[in-house]
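Sequence in, structure out.
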Amino acid sequence: MSFRPPVLNAQDFAAKDSATAGIQEAIDALPRSGGIVRLPAGVYRLRRSIELRSHVTLRGEGPSTVLTRAAAVTITPLARSMAARDRKLYLKSARGLKAGDELCLKSNIEGGWHSRHVIVTALRGKTAEVRVLKDDRGRRYLTKDNAYAANWFPALWILEKRDVTLSAFAIDGGVRKHDRAKTDFTVAAVHTRNSHHLRVLDLTVRDWPGDGIGIQGGEDALVRGCLVENTCGPGLHPGTSLMHSQWVENTAKRCTGDGYYFCRGVRNAVCQGNLFHDNLANGIGGLSDPDRFNIVANNVCAYNGKHGIDAPEALGNNIHGNLCRNNSQSEPGRYVGIYLDRHRENIVRGNQCIDDQPRHTQLDGVVAVDPLGENLIADNTCILAKPSAYATGPEIRQKPPKK
């Protein structure tokens, strides 16, 4: 007899005071062995992150299942500094906040991995009692450093878990116009840290005030068939020494960062068969040491603001079969189809770089400068209005390695 995991319906746990529309309550009701939480079609309004557990599947009914968030409050400066062990938060304004809300704390000094995420457990005037969801011990958020709180949070938070699947639903942040300076990668719509055996399948993420899907650390992640649109930051964000991940058949468009951003130390990733277009930065960006031994294949990078593929200090990667078309939209002529510098031990082969616009922007195809070792750059086709000085027909002439 095969084992059938328990299946719970999130709508059965919905209550007026739930900060997660019943989803967290359903997850918490599963046995320790895990199971499946169904999200029937409908709108689920979140005021805080859903914290996933190991061996749990969250399964929707496609785009008709929508996780959304409450309207963002005005970013609120702290009235008093917050020390590492403080569990009270003194705000200059608490307008719009209530118990159950999640806040992200930052300052001019502390941010990113050093942001603090808290849940408001009680609110008395402008003073909030909080439970720390995640922070870096020892960090302080000082008024002299312009410390502030905002109700940014990941819709899905997966911290040091195993065997988690997210499938077939939409996440809508409701933010049509982003302030690029006011965001954080730790508030990605899907944010994971040091987790293993993840499956993120057929999600739609749009208008989120942070990255789209961020897989930070851990290993064995599959992100497939997802659509990410208009996020404040990269659409897809593998990072922080992530090992053995696959990113296939996804689309990221109109994001304020790269469509796909290699963060630090990504190894053995496969980025294949994706479409990255109309992003404000690169189609694929940040591929640099210590990112190593990754495959970037058969992607389409088109009409992005900067390079089609940006690979500074690339080491030991295979970049082949990609189409980079009509990029450098932000500054015509400045950016190229595929860019490498200070690179070694890479294979860049069989790519197409094309500019077929009435007004050309991507004037160069494959540009490779200042290599630090041997690379194979061959069989690339560049159809451009004005080939660069490095172009020799379909091939690219590299500068000699530095000695």
